[in-house]
Amino acid sequence: MKRRIASLPGRIFNSFRRDMLRKMIALFFAVLLYFYISNLIHSETREVHNVPLQLELPLGLVSQTELPDVSLRVRGDARGMGSLRPRDLLGKIRIEQAVPAEMLTIELRPEMFMAPTGLNVLEVIAPRKINVMLERVHTVKVPIRPRYNSLSNLARDYAVERVTFLPPEAQVRGPESVVKALSAIYTEPIPIDAQVTESFEYTVRLDIPPGLDGCSPEKVTARIAVGRSRTTRTFVGVPVRLTVAAGAPPVWNMDIRPSAQVELTLSGPLEKVNALRLSDLKPYLELPSATRPGDYTVPVGCYLDAPGDVEITRIEPATLTIKLTEKR
User: Fold this and answer.
1) CA-angle at 75, arms to 80 and 86, nearest 5°
2) Over the range 80-96, which residues count as b (16 or more CB within 10 Å of their CB) and which as e?
3) Which one, of 234, 265, 270, lies nearest residue 151 by Cα?
4) CA within 13 Å, CB half, 245
5) Which pLDDT tens digit goes with each residue over 5-28?
6) pTM above 0.90?
7) SS3 content of the chain, % helix, strand, coil (to 5)
């Protein structure tokens, strides 16, 4: 009988089939070693600066500490390193439990930082440790106050008389120390110009102070009441004049008590009141039509050389005493 001689391809196939498992394992490690060596050959190490940090805190706590940027030593393939940005390595610090108002010292480790595929964070260069102060989150309601671009832009003799907001308060949320120091929250500037001569409504955003986590609402409706601006002004030591009533005998000596001067308070448009001079004010006493000597209490009147929308609101004293005696 003749032996069958296997063909060359058959002998190769049979040789491959023998110890298949060990050969597959060896091939796997060979490929792994190839890529490892290839990665070492084509990889590079670089320092990456300005890597941001992020805190993950328990509910009800907030940090008042400004986190620093970090410098890392990173290794990876040249292609990945070429497109690497600092924010791609964002560090996340998770704090599971902490006591408010106590300083925490946290050691930064490479595993806290995200690394894109093909890159590894080898080392934290600086800072290696950070200090964090935590506070309780506090929520309160505070009144809303207006802020304007410039009240001086209003038309002459006009002023903002009052402002109301809908809603009148805002709810703010943030660190306890920041929130407790907040007495009110202001709007962004409300525009005012010379065309504003009557009341109006305006929707305006609130100017949220730094350090707060939230504010509700973020916008409010402002109702601005605009009217003519009025002011008051007081003149002191204005001399009083005497006038003679019809029928009064011109034979008396007259003595005014306690003084021949009064104090006048006037009210009216700001510009007109400020333009008044002492000579524009003419307080007077009218001599009674008396027929015999004596003391007469007389109300003080006043002529005013000013427009009709300026008025006298107070004369002090309101009355004076005239003593009449016969001429000898």
Assistant:
1) 65
2) bbeebeeebbebebeee
3) 270
4) 10
5) 556 666 665 665 666 677 677 667
6) no
7) 20, 50, 35
